[in-house]
Each structure stands twice: as C-alpha cells, then as structure tokens.
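Here we describe the complex-level prediction in full. Unlike the single-chain runs in Section 2.1, the two entities below were treated as one system.
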Amino acid sequence: MIRNLSHEMYAPPSRDERTRQEFVASLRHHVLDDMAAGMRNRYAAYVEPAFMRAHNRLPVDGDEVHEAMLDDPYFGFYSSIRYNAQQMVFRSVIPIVDRHMDALKVKAQEIAQRAGGPEVGLELDSTLEIPKNVTNIDVHLSPGSYHTEYQADDVSAGAIYDNSINVFAFNQMGRDIDDIGHSFANYVRLAYPEFNPKAILDAGCTIGHNTLPWANTFPEADVTGIDIAPGLLRYAAARARSLGTRAHFHQMNCTQLDYPAASFDVVFSSMLLHELPLRDIRAFFREAFRVLKPGGLLLNMELPPNNKLEAYDRFYLDWDCFYNKEPYYKPFRDQDYAELCTAAGFDATRFIETVIPRYTYTAPEDFAAEVARGAQFDDRTGRFSAEIRWYGFGAWK
Amino acid sequence: MSRIPMQHRGKRPRFFSVNGMDELMSMVLELTAELWIIKKRLYLLERVAANKGVDLTPDIENYALSDQEVKELDSVRRQMIATVLRSLENEYSSLADIRDETLATGDHDKNARVRAA
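The structure predicted for the assembly as a whole is:
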C-alpha cells in the first residue's frame, strides 16, 4: 500500500518503519472512508432530525452543522482519530528523515553537480522574508512547518513533505504523489487543444511534484516552480533532476512575483490558496494577472467553494480549518471564487471551473469524457477517498 | 540524537469533555501501531524460519538472555512506553508557541473545542 518513491532523494525506511507507515496509512483510510461514512449516517439519522425539531428548518451552512455535530460523540471519535492519524503520519516519517539528513544533503549536491541529464535551475534568495502564516504555525501539524532548516543547505523540509504525503495519500495521489499535476495539465491539453503554453509557472510548488507533470505534458514549455522555503526548493531541484525532467525552481513569494508583465502562458497553483490569508490570495491573483500574457490562463487546483456544496459537505471539508492547523481554509472557501478573479482584473465572462477525476487512475477515454462534461459537484468533490474528484478554478486573461 | 521535533507547536484540539480522554485516544492509537509492528515482524519471522525448515518454538521458550540483551530490551521497552505516552509530554511545553500562533491567525476559532491554557 505504500511504495517507494521512484527518485533518488527518497529516504528509505527500515522494515519496521515501513510497517508503522502502513499502520498510519490504514488508520487514515479507516477514518476517511469508514468513519466518514459513519459520521454522515449519524448526521442523517440523529443530528439533522434533532436540528429540525429544534429550529423547524434544516441547517443552512457548515457552521450550523458543525455546531450541531459538536454534541455527537461520534464526531469526537472521528475528529480525535483523524487528528491523531495526521500526527502519526509525521512521526512515521521524521525519524527516517532525521537519520538520513546528512546523506540527503550530500545527495542533493551530488545530483546538482552531476554531468549530463536535464537542466534544472535553482535560485534561492536568502533575503526573502518567510511569511508569518508559515513561520508561526505548524501548518497541518507538520513540525517545523515548511521552512525550518536544521543545517546549512538542508533539504529536510522537502524530505519530510515528500515522504509524509506518500504515507498520507496511501497510494491514492499517484506514483510520485503527482496525480494533481498530471490531472490539471491534461485537463488543459484536452479542454483547450488550441492552447500551446510555452511558459508555465507553478506557484507554491513545494517539492515540484505537481510542477513536473506540466513539463511532461507540454515538453516544449519552460516550467518554473516558486515557493518561499529554501529546503523545499533544494529538494525539488534534486528530485526533478533525478526524475529526468527539465524545470527551474526559484525562491519567491507569490504575492510579489519577480517577473516582468506578460511573462507566462499559465500560472498554476495546487493546494496553495487555502494556506494563504485572504489578502495574500488577492495579491497573488493581481500578480498572476500582471505576469500572464494576454490569452494566458490562471488555474488553481483547490478544495471546492462552500457556496457549491450542501451544508453537511461544507462542514465536512471545513474540518481542517478548526482541527488541522489550517486557519485560512474556511476564510478562503467561504469566498466567491469568481469574485476573487474579477477583483484581480480578470473578466467575469472568462472565469472557469472544473471537476475532474484522477488522471493517473482513470482510463483516458473516461477522463476525456468527464472533462467534456464540465464541473459537477457532489460529495466526491474534494473529499479524500478512492472516488475523489479534483476541483479547479481560474480565468483566462 | 534527533534534530527534528516530533510534535507540532501550539495547542492540540480537544474533542472530549472528560479530562484526559484526548490523551488517552492518542495513547491507544500509538499502542495499536506498536502492536501491529510486532505482529507483522513475528509473522515474517515465522515464515522465514519455516522456509528454512526450522521450528523455533522450543528454543524461544528456553532462551537465556545475556546481560547485554537484557540491557537492550530495557532500552527498547522504555522507548516504547515513551512513544505510547508521548501525548502527555508536550501540551504545556511553551506558552510562547501558543501566543505566536494566536498572533498569526487572529482569534481562536469560535467553534473549536479549545481549552484555555
């Protein structure tokens, strides 16, 4: 159920460490599948009827559902086990990364200096201030958040991220946890066949797992990933070179892009926005508008907005905001995503959104059919399960 | 010597009104992980031995541990207990972390069951 990542920066576990990871992955699966279904049943059988009796109407939003669920014991167990499973993901990975910390640093440097292989650029900026929303919170319970370095030229943050997602995803996010990148690059290829992007930016790229699929799908394009944390980017560059994919990684804050106007055909982001304060999302979108060429595309893979979901599903996806150290989740998801785009300069008529299956798990004809069908929202949208559908939105310039 | 922390900064969320129940849940889950690791290893051990045509049971029953082996086991056992009870270590480690987190995010989430420090 958990496979070795296929690149050289992978930190291999011992037998027992791998066994612990399998336990955690199974526990996550149990919570997100069995217990999620159980909690939904509890809601339908007990909580919603009780609300109806008390208020003579159904809950109107996620907050009302959340309030009602707080008194249900099952919610406590679902939440407690889910919270613990998240902690245990990191605990099943950190000792391994810690042990390999020096070797990984040396490996990254060796890969960078290697003769032959694709050109992978890495530009760090030690003057860049890491934003407080990263430094002051251990985002999604990750000890040290994204930015902590434990030595000079450290790659630990990248290794923790890569290996922890590998456990977190229990084989559901692609061979090298890159299904999202493949899904959206191929969505663009299929939905807009005339569009031939030459310059692509992945904002908040972390380790480049969803950056490289754009280079795979559009091999003529120059693909750049930016992020605020140096350890992530050193790891990303080594990983890309090891996987044989040409890309460039640059330490940069997406709210202040160091590019001239009209530099890119695509500005992409994946699971970035829900980690930004709203003012930073708006600043990023204004910058995206500026650096896009006319006819270019801003496309963001994210969780679906609350205004497209039923009350219970809003509550279900809001959970991380309250219990998983993701304080910006709900402020983002409560927005009108089209308005976020138009406020940044995009035309309202050029707004797009889509709901697509996982590209690397779906037969090509089925994937193409769902792309053609357009965005349909149900309880699979954004909910992590074997049936998950990815949501994306954005706008053409 | 480990350099990377194993626990997130700041408060943990609390899901039960009974004191200590949140920690108890953590301990039960860590315990179950430890149990699984052993179960799997014993499973592998039996199969490896059987493949070599060896029945290990009599020797296991009669094995005399050396002083060195006793020391090793003591250390592993203590580590296991620390692992299972880790959730009790860290909650009150630093008010500075709690304060930093609050400053970053504004106010406490009104719906979260967060106990006052």
